[in-house]
Write a structure and sequence with these properties.
heterodimer, A: alpha+beta, five-stranded mixed β-sheet, globular, B: about 350 residues, 14 helices
Amino acid sequence: MSKLFKTGLLAAGFAALLGSTGLSAKTLVFCSEGSPENFQPALNTTNTTLDADRPAYDQLVEFTPGTTDVVPGLAEKYEVSKDGLEIVFHLRKGVKFHSLKGFKPTRDFNADDVLFSFNRQWKDDNPYHKVSGGAYDYFNDMDMPKLLKSIEKVDDYTVKVTLNEPNATIIPNFAMDFASIESAEYADYLLKAGTPEKIDQEPVGTGPFQFVAYQKDAVLRYKAFDQFWGGRPKIDTLVFAITPDAEARYAKLQKNECQIMVGPLPADLKGMQANPDLNVMSQQGLNDAYLSFNMKKPPFDKKEVRQALVMAIDKKNIIEDVYEGTGASATTLIPPFMLGYNDKIPEYPYDPEKAKQLLASAGVKTPLDVDLWYQPVYRPYNPNGKRMGELMQADLAKIGVNAHLVTYEWGDYRKRLQNGEATISQMGWTGDNGDPDNFFFLFDCATARDGGQNYARWCNKDYNDRFLKAQQTFDKDERAKLYREMQQITHDEVPYLNIAHSVVYVPMRKNLVGFKVSPLGRFEFHQVELK
Amino acid sequence: MLTYALKRIAQTVPTFIALVALTFFALRLVPGDPVEVRVGEHGISPERLAEFRHQLGLDLPVWQQFLHYLWQILHGDFGISVVSQQSVLSEFFARFPATIELSAVSLVLAVGLGVPLGIVAALSRGTFVDYTVTALAVIGNSMPIFWWGILLVLLVSLKLDLTPVDGRIDNVAYYFDPDQTTGFMLWDSFWSDQDGAFLSALSHLILPSIVLGTIPLAVIMRITRSAMLEVLGEDYVRTARAKGLSPLRVVGLHALRNALIPVVTAIGLMVGTLIAGAVQTETVFSWPGIGKWLIDSFNRRDYPALQGGVLIISILVTLVNLSVDLLYGIINPRISHGR
C-alpha cells in the first residue's frame, strides 16, 4: 500500500513538473494508422510499413522530402555511361551504422553493404534470400531481375551496376525503399548467432533514427542517431503511436497526445482547419483514379462509344461528392507536377446531348446494358468506389446506358480485371518512384495481355513506340516531349477516363515545423523540429 | 469423481477436432485470396503467384491442407503468420496479456457493480429504482460497442479532459522494454521505477474497461435481479425472516449465496462475450490485444494468424469451461455422480 501511496505522490509531483517545464527531451509522436509488418523495406509494399521502417535506413540516392527529385544519398555521386548500360556509384565515406543490444558495428558503411542489400533480393544463393519468406515484391515489380546484369564492387567505396538494357528510370528505382542499405556485418553476426530473421525485426541501418523498441500494435520507438551522416535530427525521440481509428487519431492530435497524424477523415477536415492549434498541409498525391473501357468488348471497341460515356459522366459532381474536396480533377494519367505533364490536354466536357449523338452515330441502340465494376475497398485515390459507381450509373442512365453495378472482394476483383472479365471498371494507381514511366506502363502493349494490368486491353503502336523510346532516353527534355505526345494520343483514343488525383492532407500541431508533405505519401521526420 | 473428470476431458477431444475443422473451413469460405490481397495494385506474374501459393501450401487440395494443419496443431505448431513471418503462437502471446488485463478489469467492474445493482433492484421490486436499473440494463445490453466507445472518448477524454484517448500508457513519459516485462501493464508499471507510470496505466484502462464491461454488467445485473427475486420467495428465506434475523443477514447470508449460483455460471460463459467485445473495444482504443490483432489479420487475409488465433482462443475457452465443470463437480458432488 505504501508503494501505491508513494507512486501516487510522485505521480502528482511528476505531473506538476511536466506542467511547468515540459519534457526536456524533444519527443515527436506520430499517430500512424497501422502496425508495421516488419522492419525490412525490401519485403514490404505498404506505406504504413515503409513509413515505420524508413527512419532507420538510407538508400544510395534519395528523394528530397516533399518532392520526387532524386538527390545523392549514401552515394556521394554517380555516373551513367553514354550507352546507359553502366552506372558507377561513388559511396560516401565515414558513414556509421547503428548499434543494437549485442551488436556493435566495427566498420563504416562500404560497398559490401550495397552488394549484400541487393544480392539478398536478387540471388537465390544468398543466405538471406529466403529469410522471412523472401518475397521481394518491389524488386521484382520494378523489373530489377530483368534489368540487372551485374552489381560489382570496384573498391570499398565504388560500386558498378551493369544493366542488360538502358533504362532511364533506374536511378529513381535506387531511391525507393526496397533499395535501402542494410549492414552486411550485422547480417553475418546474426547468421553466426543462428537468428538471421532478426535482421527484419530489429533493424540496423545508417538512417537518421536508431531503432529502440517495438511493442506490437502499440508503439514504436526510435531515438535520434547522433552519428548520422546527414546531421543529427532536431528531435530526440520519435514515437509511432499506432492508432488505427481515424477519429481516435484526431482526438489524440487535439489533445497533443500526438503532433502529427496520417489519414484524416474528409468529414473532419473543416474542423481541423478551423482549429487554431492545428496546421493542415496538403498536396496533390502521386496517383490517379481512372475508369477503363475494355476495348475487346463491343461496342467499346468503337471510339465514339467511349467518348460518349466520358462525356456523359459528370466528373465535377464526383469530385465534390465522393472526394469531398480531397480530390482534383485529372485530365491525364499523371498529376501536374510530374515530368512531361501535358497541360494542353483539355477536359472532355460534360455534355449528355452530345453523348447521345455519339452513341447514335456509332450505331448503338439504347437502352444499352452494361456492367460497371466498382472498387470494393477504400483506396487513397478513390475513397468510395461504390458511391462513385452510383453517380456514374445515374449519369449513364441519362443517355440510355443501363449500368449494373458489380463488385467482388478486392483480391478477386483485381484478379478478374487482369483476366479481362470486366467491361467498364474502376481502378487507380499510386506511383512508386516519382517517374512517369511508372504510370504509363499501365497502358503499354505488354500489359494488354491476359493477366496484365492494362484493363482497357489497349495496344496502340504510336503510344507504345514512344513509351519504349522514353524508357531508354536519359535526356529529360526528350522524355518529357515523348510523354506529352503519349498523353495526347491517349486523350484522342480514350481507352479510359481519368477521374481524379486525390489530395493528401496532413494535419499537425502548429509547433511542428519543417515537415514536408510528400507526393509519394511518405512520412519523414529527419528535418522536422518541435518549437 | 475421477471417472467424471476423465469422461469430461475425453469429451473435449472431438470438440477440439470440430474446432480445428470449423476455423479451417470457415476461413476458406470467406471470399478473397491471401496471396492476391498481399500483392496490391502492383499485380504479379503467374509464376510468382504460384510460388507464393506453394510456399503457403495453398496449392494442395483442401483436404490435404486440412490434414497437414491438423498434424501441425498436434505438434503445437500453429503456423507462421504470412504478414510478420513469425510464429502464430508467439504473435498471439505477445498480445494476450493486454486482452486478459482489459477483460479482467472489465469483469471486475461488471461484477462489482452488477451484483449490488441487481440486489438493489430485486429488493425494491416494482419501484422507481427497480425500473431505472432494469431500463439501464436493457440499454447497456443493446449498446453498440463502437458507438459507445467513440461517444465516451468525445465526452470524457476530449470535452472533460479526464482520461487519455487511447493506448495503454503515456507513451512519451513512460517506456517499458518489452523483453523484460510481463505484458500486464498494471503490474509492470507498479513495479517499475518510473514514478507515475501506474497511474498512467490505470487511467488508460478506465474507458476501455467501461466499454467492454457494459454488456456483461447489464447481463449480470439482470441475472442477479431475477435470481434474487426467486430466492427471496423460497421457504428458507421466509423461515430466516420469521426467525427474526436482520434483513441484512437474510439477504447477505442466506439469499445471496444461492442467488449467486446462476451469476457465477453466467460469468463462466461470459469469456466468449468478452473476447468478442474486445475485438471492437480494442479497435476503438488502439488497445494492442488479441481482438485488434485478429481484425488486422482478417483484413490482411493472414490465414495462418487468423486460423491460429481463433483456434487458440477456442481452446482456451474450452479449457476454461472444462475447469469450471470440474470445479462444479467438486463443489456439487451430485453433478459428478451423473444425476
